[in-house]
Each structure stands twice: as C-alpha cells, then as structure tokens.
Design brief:
This protein is α/β, with parallel strands linked by helices. The protein has 12 helices and 6 strands. The longest helix is centred in the first third of the chain and has 29 residues.
Length: about 400
C-alpha cells in the first residue's frame, strides 16, 4: 500500500486535483454498479434478505458517488459576487446529504429486517450462492476503501475521506452479512435477518457521524484547540505584534478561515501597522497550508471596550476646529496627528521650524493650547512639533 511518504499531499491549487477526485470517484461508481447488481440479484435468487440489504447499501454508495462528482465539479469554481468566499462548502453540503442518505437507508433496512424476524417460520432457506457473493463484496469494498482513503489523504479532502470510510463501513457490513448467511446455512434461521438489522444500524451510525460533522462546519464551528493554539503562537511571535486579544477560526470544506485582532504600538504610522498585519497574514498562511485566508485587524489597545470608547470621541474635523483659534494668523500646519487612546485624544501639531523660532509666537501657542486643553476635557494632551525637511544628498 502506498504511504504518505511515497505519495505526497497535493496542493489545494494544483490543477490536477479535480481530475484525480473525478477519477477516484468514477472507480467507486463502477465498483458499486457491479456490486449493487450482483448483490441484489444474488440476494433475491438465494433468498437472502441480508444480501439484498447490503445491495441497497451499495446502491446508496452509488448515489453518494454521484453527489461527490457533483460537489467536486462545482466546489472548484472561483469566488464570485454571490459567493465571495468561493464554493468549497458545496463539498460540505454533499457530505451532509451523504450522511442523511445513509441514515435513511439504514433505517429502512432495520425496519424491513425487523418485520421479517417476526415471521421466521415463513422464511425460505438461504442458498450458498449468497455466501460467495457476500465474500466477493467484502474483498471488493475493502480494496475500494484503501484506494479512496489514499487519494483522499493526498488531496486532504474530507468529502473523499468520508466516502472512503463509507466504503469501509460497507466492507464491515459485508462481513456481517457473510457471517449471518453462514449462520443461516448452519441452521439458524434468524441469522440472515439479524445480520440485516446489524448492517442497518452500522449504516445509520455512519450516516449520523457524517451529517453531524458536516453540520458542525455549516454552523461555523472553529478549529481544534491544538490548531488554534498553533496559529495563535505564530501570530504572537510576529515582529511588531504586541499582543493578540481576539482570534476566530472556521472551516470551509478542506480549508479554513482565520480572523485575528492584533495590538501594535499606537505611535507607529498606518502604513507600518498595515505592513505588520500583512507579515502576520503571510506567516500564518505559510505555516498552516490548510488556512486559505487570514483577516488581520490592527488595534492600538488591548481593550475590548476600545472600539465603543473611540466611537464616542469627537471626529478630526471637530477637533481641528477647536484648535483653529490657537493657530490663527500662523501658516497652516504641515499635519495634525490624532491618537485615540484610553478614551481620550492626544494631538500632535507639526509646524514649520521657522514659526517656532520666534519665542513670542511659541509662548503664545503654549498659552493658547493650554486653554484648549482646559476647554476640551476629551483632549488628553497637545504637542507642538516643528518639521524640518532633510533633502537627500545628490551623488556626483
């Protein structure tokens, strides 16, 4: 059997991914077409209810295979206006439908077998043909399981892996059927119908598991504690990130999405904060191949109430108007920098160097700015700075 080392994982953007998914599923389709026909016909001819039930199980596999083909075809479509995150969750919906089909099929088998168990005296004997057919199905389904699981692990596709384990449950059910038929041939009339009931329960259980896992993804259940911890550590170790106070994750079929709120030095520029966010995003994507996108929100305070406090503070235009009387008669400032911190505003006013060279003007500005601070309690501080442009030296 080929191992992961012999067959490396295939990247999510590999153009051959879809073709391999289709080829794997078409192999399953051909095997299940053959088994469905063989089991149902042999079960009817040999009077084996368990074999007919296993044939219906194979028929449900066939339906599931076509669901996989449909999902694989459409899930590879790129993002569009209606689906900005892409179509990957079509695979998740297919997995949910697959589980529902299994659960309904298993319930029907249990009901039918339960009715037969109440009338054992009227059941015809089972012919040996049923046993040979059950053994053939067991070998075929086990081989199909190993093949599909290998491909599913290479593609890291939960849909293919689910379909592979579905085939393994089929192999287990064929084993139970073979034992039940063998018991019937040895004189235990109830064994065949009892095997059908057991197969039904196995199918129901597998269907519930698949549907439950798909439902967890559809309701945006986060990644495991280990995965979240690993992503958290990568973010915290990024240069420029002071702390991380919110991290959210969710699955998108075989990929996952991450939202993170990082704190940076509040005195750096917007462009530097943006660069830190982009570096953080790249580090997470590079270290976690299953993560398809990372949204990094830059904060200046590790405070969950910071956003609500900032919203209640005055806007730039209002603050600039408040400072206008103190700056009257002076050249327009090069820039005014506002820091919204701790529920208040810290302002920095940058003037030309020659303006502050006049001690009388500088003294008046200090006096007027002090008055602005007293008149506006939301202003925590005012800084007057001068700006001196240093031109780059030209080479010879």
């Amino acid at each position: 059997m080929t191992t992961r080392k012999d067959a490396p994982e295939i990247a999510f953007d590999d153009p051959g991914r879809h073709a391999l998914t289709q080829r794997c599923t078409w192999v399953s389709v051909l095997v299940n077409v053959f088994l469905t026909a063989a089991q149902v016909v042999a079960g009817i001819v040999a009077n084996s209810q368990a074999l007919v039930a296993d044939g219906m199980h194979s028929l449900s596999d066939l339906v599931c295979d076509f669901l996989v083909l449909f999902a694989a075809h459409h899930s590879k479509d790129p993002a569009d206006e209606s689906h900005p995150y892409g179509h990957a969750r079509i695979e998740t919906a297919a997995s949910f439908a697959l589980g529902a089909i299994l659960a309904l099929t298993g319930t029907a088998i249990i009901w039918s077998a339960g009715v037969k168990l109440q009338h054992l005296d009227n059941l015809p004997p089972v012919a040996p043909l049923a046993l040979w057919t059950a053994m053939l199905a067991l070998v075929a389904k086990e081989g199909l399981f190993r093949y599909m699981l290998r491909i599913g692990e290479r593609l890291r596709s939960p849909m293919l892996i689910a379909n592979a384990w579905h085939a393994r449950s089929d192999a287990a059910s064929s084993l139970v059927v073979a034992i039940g038929i063998g018991g019937n041939l040895m004189g235990f009339a109830f064994a065949d119908s009892l095997a059908a009931v057991i197969v039904g329960f196995m199918i129901v259980r597998m269907g519930v598991v698949f549907s439950w896992e798909a439902l967890q993804e559809l309701i945006d259940t986060g990644l495991s504690v280990e995965e979240v911890g690993s992503i958290r550590q990568v973010i915290i170790d990024t240069a420029g990130v002071g702390s991380l106070h919110e991290l959210r994750t969710r699955r998108m079929a075989h990929r996952s999405l991450v939202d993170a709120h990082i704190c940076v030095n509040p005195r750096i520029s917007v462009s530097e904060g943006h660069r830190i966010a982009e570096v953080t995003r790249k580090r997470v994507l590079d270290s976690h191949p299953t993560v398809s996108d990372v949204l990094v929100h830059v904060d200046v305070e590790d405070d969950l109430d910071h956003d609500s406090k900032s919203q209640s503070l005055p806007e730039r235009s209002e603050l600039v108007r408040h400072l206008a009387p103190a700056l009257a008669g002076l050249p327009e400032p090069h820039r005014v920098v506002l820091h919204y911190l701790n529920g208040r505003v810290e302002a920095e006013v940058f003037l030309a160097a020659e303006v502050l060279a006049d001690r009388a003007v500088a003294g008046r500005l200090e006096h007027d700015f002090a008055g602005c601070l007293r008149a506006c309690p939301l202003l925590a501080s005012l800084s007057i700075n001068y700006r001196q442009r240093v031109l780059p030296l030209r080479g010879d």
